[in-house]
Amino acid sequence: MTDTSKTRLYLYYFVLLTLSLALFYCFHRMTIKHPEDYMYMEKCVLCIISSFFNIFVLFYHCTHAPHPKYLILAQRRFVIYIHILSGLLEFLTCWIAFCTGSERIATIAAIIAIVAHVPSAYYQTSIAFGAKAIMVAGYLFAINIHLFCALHLFFNPSSSYWLLNMFLVHNIYVWCRVLYAFFDFLGLFKDSLYTNSVVIASLILIPAVLGVSANMLFLGYVVSSILLYLIIVRPNKIDRTYYVGERTRNLLVNKDVHNNWFKETARLVRMNKDNELSDQQQAKLVFDLLDEDKNGYIDGEEINRLLKEWQTEENFRNRFFRWTKNGQISYENFYKNIWRLGETSIGHFQERQNKEGRARARFIFDCLDNDFNGYLDSIEIQKLLIQWGLPDNEVDAYLANDDDKQFSFDEFYHNLKPVWNFAYENMTLKDTDEVLKPVHDHSS
């Protein structure tokens, strides 16, 4: 990313912050005339349903591995633990305050939200999956209204109106997870499941807090943030695709574009029309096409242009350009690090069996060790971390403490448990006649 692009991006963040602050005025104007018992029964019903759903969501998170993007770096791990703990405390204190009428407990609930749950939510916004054009704005809107309600409750701890409002906004995520499971079960929104779940959850709960016109404000804020991004940042075609596309993780390459590239390569299509070529033969054919001077190497700049054409993840493009400073890519490196970018998951199958601990880590390690040399090298590790959603600077921070920039199995087992544990849960396993669906669709 150039300095000009960074400046535009920072300017966009500043304008979005200003727009977010303007929301507080809108929230104030929409709630100032509400009586204390505004939609009281409706809110109570929604709170009871939300609390019921919480049981299943908590059980799910207690029995399944969390996403690695929250656990790989120490600061992310610390923040997500703060977020989870503060969320549980806020849930409990809200219920205790409601049942007992205690102003002191209500004040504690508001403080927990203000100093812990809301800040930790802001911190996680940048790594939200789904369509960032909608997700980032949607997250900020929900977090802002959560802070707005918490501040009002802090100054009015006797108000059941603000207590119920804060509790409802707090439970938007719970509704998101429930809707996600429901839509997934029905097969709805397959290409935008997470984004639609978040949006619909917001449209259900926010009107109970702000009133019937709240959805117009929510949609207006999302649309405004998208238009500001397009006007201020002026993204190129690749960045715009990344911004509006649904992502359950950071795919290193746009698979559809990657596959279409081969279809548009006439020579490859002709030779492979009957699927007669193996994967390595196809890779060698493309390598030879790109190796114009037939010296056994491809120029690094040529590969960089190809990566852009495939709409490759920007973090990977920047890093790959640094990896190829000598401008020479051999066929072995091309096949290992470029050709297989189109793979979006660990494509291995095995007879169904339960693996735990070290055996589970060994299986994932062997899947990732493409050249079977007993190590995951720096490029393999960086590709893996980018796919798990770590921002570019956090990938550098993670590798800073690794002197040799490669991982043996023991290092992988001890240092990357969030990766191998989550990856194993989300692999497709073959059990004789049955192919099981991964637990999450956030796998890599």
UniProtKB/TrEMBL annotation:
Taxonomic superkingdom: Eukaryota
Name of one Pfam family that matches: EF-hand_5
Annotated ranges, domain EF-hand: 278-313, 356-391
Protein name: EF-hand domain-containing protein
Species of the source: Adineta steineri
Ranges that cross the membrane: 12-32, 38-57, 78-98, 104-122, 134-155, 161-180, 192-210
GO MF annotations in UniProt: calcium ion binding
InterPro entries listed in its UniProt record: EF-hand-dom_pair (IPR011992), EF_Hand_1_Ca_BS (IPR018247), EF_hand_dom (IPR002048)
Keywords: Calcium, Membrane, Transmembrane, Transmembrane helix
